[in-house]
Design goal:
0% strand, mainly alpha, 91 residues
Amino acid sequence: MPMTRVSSEREIRALLRRWIREHAADRLDHELTDDLPLLESGVLSSLDVTELILFCEQLLGAEVDVDVIEPGLLQSIDTLYAGIFRSSTPA
């Protein structure tokens, strides 16, 4: 998979929302906001998690540090961004 670094917070959040909409279209019966609990609300399944992490790596342009992957990281787009992207992208 080619690594493509995305530069801005706004762009990353938009791409994460698009990925979730595409992969969870049949389960997305809520408005997709950046603070929506993705697993708890059933928008993402546990099977989606690996694919989402791989997508984050593609956006980051590098592998995600396994030390940052914990249940709270996958709570929402907000927590994904804070845990994976915040230190490597400008606002």
